[in-house]
Amino acid sequence: MDTSFFHSGLFNWILLPVMIFLSRMTDVTLGTLRHIFLAKGVKRLVPVLGFFEVLIWLVVIGQIMKNLNNFLCYLAWAGGFATGTLVGMLIEERLALGMQVIRIITNQECEALVAKFREKNLGITLIDGQGSKGPVKIIFTVIKRKDLESVAALIRQFNPNAFYSIEDIREANQGVFPRSSGGFGYFSRLLPSRK
After folding, report:
1. Gyration radius from the chain CA atoms
2. Band of the pLDDT at 194, cuts 50, 70, 90?
3. Average confidence score pLDDT of the chain
4. Using CA atoms, how far apart are residues 148 and 129, in angstroms rounded to an integer?
5. CA 135: distance to chain centroid?
6. In Å, how far are 7, 139, 151, 158, 164 from 109, measured between CA atoms?
7. For a surface tag, which of 18, 52, 108, 130 has the fewest beta carbons within 10 Å of its beta carbon?
8. What DSSP string describes 126-158?
9. pLDDT band for position 37 (cuts 50, 70, 90)
């Protein structure tokens, strides 16, 4: 087998750095998703991602060690790391896994907002409270993260001056949630069940 191609300038200074960049980007993307899935409780998928993450890492680090005199390999390694982190976060954002609690505090009438939440089958808890400027209503609701934008739009529409905060939660039990449409097929079985 002719190995002259693997020692040519084209391979060493262009193709090898590109392969290292793409491989490092892939392994860091998998690592970022692995950490995110672990934090979200998607434990069945974590070992699979970890296996491929380390396998790719070993192959790439082997190429770096064989080409220590090629500074482009170092730049490709660092660039792949940065890009992989970004790609992993973008993928996680698109998947929108997990649930969030929204706390809405308002000193205005909120019956229309509460009615809209109930119409959308969103579970709510409504509490009377006391704010710095007088009585307030506090509305709690737990939603799927993918529904955040539509719920925030309802708040802006029906109670635009309300204060609200959003916080990730790892698990919720016995809540009222809208029915999901569609799914991820086989992939959805790897994800934790959501009520």
Report:
1. 24
2. very low
3. 85
4. 24
5. 37
6. 74, 12, 18, 9, 15
7. 130
8. EEEEEETTEEEEEEEEEEEGGGHHHHHHHHHHH
9. confident
Residue 149 CB partners (closer than 8 Å, separation 6+): none
pTM comes to: 0.66
Structure token digits, residue 179? 């029915």
Instruction: Assess contact for 76 and 25: CB atoms under 8 A.
Output: no
Pick from 95, 182, 102, 77: nearest CA to 146: 95
Q: Strand pairing partners for 165?
A: 103
Dist CA 102 CA 95 (whole Å): 19
- Residue at token pair 């993918």: 146
Residue-wise pLDDT for 60-89, tens only, equals: 888 888 888 888 999 999 999 999 999 999
State the DSSP H helix or E strand holding residue 18, giving kind and residue range, or none if neither: helix 16-40
Q: Does domain 99-190 have CATH number 3.80.10.10?
A: no
Q: Which residue, 103, 117, 104, 98, is CA-closest to 168? A: 98
